[in-house]
Amino acid sequence: MPLNLFRTIRFFGVASVLIGTSAMAQIPPSYQLIGNKYGVDPAMMYAVAHVESGKKNKTGLFMPWPWTANICDRAPGVRCKGHFFKSREELYSRLMAELARGNDWFDVGQVQMNWHFHGKRFGYDLWLATQPLVNLNQAAGLIKELQQRHGSTLEVFAAYHAGTAWRSKARSQARINQIIGYANKANQHYMRIIKNEKNNHVVGLP
Q1: Which candidate among 38, 53, 96, 110 keeps its CA 20 to 30 Å from the CA of 137?
Q2: Could you report the per-residue pLDDT of 1-31, keeping only the tens digit for each?
Q3: Angstrom distance (rounded) from CA 199 to CA 150
């Protein structure tokens, strides 16, 4: 598929409305430190986290939520539902229950690492995967790998969501449109985060 399709297909949904109306916090230090460690733009990581687990907090800021899961029913895209849990323990308990019934098709944490494909990155230790900094470290590693394989930010976002071979594996035009929509939405967050950082940057005294 030509890359210019990214510029012709747009996703308009709840998150896209939130993107234009909700205040956004500056990039947290943890994203800065981990991004620098892996050589990954922290704004890209923060954009992914906003798309994957963003929600308004009590102060009205739209921010990633660490105790987030997207749970499908034993297969990708089958009866999937997102959940915002109140605590790490709640998140862990629910996902362990899914594993107990033979289901590993779920995404974990603020950057929604898919357990079926990426559980090995955590040594298949689900409790470890629910630790926010560990979760973010593994996502940064994945983004770094994707950057080495793809030439554009939009392609990296698409591959993060659907894998590097998404163009050949997508079974329908609707799925292709959904992947492109995700990439566009992540890129909108990315652009807004960069703009927000510039607006909030304070130049120090010489």
Answers
A1: 96
A2: 344 444 433 333 333 333 444 566 789 999 9
A3: 30
